[in-house]
Each structure stands twice: as C-alpha cells, then as structure tokens.
Amino acid sequence: MTERRIFDPGLQPERTELAWRRTALAIGVASLLALRILPATTPRPELAPVLLLPGILGLAFAVVLWACAGARHRRVTRALLDDRPDRLPGAGLLLLLTAFVIACGLVAAVVIALPRLI
C-alpha cells in the first residue's frame, strides 16, 4: 500500500472541495423546491410547464457543479503535490457560479413580475 503524502496539514483543498459540494447540494435542494413551488403558484395553469424550467436547469447546474468540484480538487491536489503552482485552476468555477446566481435573480424578478404582466 502506497502512502499518500499530505502537503497541507490543514487539508485546505479538501475543505474547499467540501464547500463547493455544499454549494452544489444547496442549489440542488433549492431547485427541487422550485420544481415543487413555482408551477403550483402560477395564476395561469398553462404556464406551469414553463415554470418547471428553472428547477430543471438548477438541478442540472448542481450536478455540473458537483462534478466540477471533484475535478477542481484533483487538479489542485496534483498541482500542489507536483509543486507546480502554475497549474492551479483559475476562477472559472467561481465565474460560472456567479453567472448562475445572476440568472437566478433575473428569473426571480420575472416570476415576481409575472402576475402583473398577465
């Protein structure tokens, strides 16, 4: 059995991965709630299928974020073990999450304004 070298006694990359996974889990739970609540609260039942879309997209994003968190952790661990800081991942995952949160805000604004528009 090979012994795995620990480069960080505080296990910073592991804690960061867990934080990304908690974020993905929170997005997944919120998306499931959106799937349950949004179609039930629409004043026009014919719009219910359209209101399923934010929840479905949120669940898909949660799965992608979960997978990206694992891949990011592997890249960070490999870069640190090989002492190659130039191979550390950038802020792409954070940028993706930021774009998702902004999109969620826009969807929320539309959902709130929807009864007034119809």
Automatic annotation (TrEMBL):
Membrane topology: Multi-pass membrane protein
Membrane is among the record's keywords: yes
Main location: membrane
GO-annotated cellular components: endomembrane system
Signal peptide: none
Iron is among the record's keywords: no
Protein name according to UniProt: Inner membrane protein YidG
The species this protein was found in: Microbacterium trichothecenolyticum (Aureobacterium trichothecenolyticum)
Gene: yidG
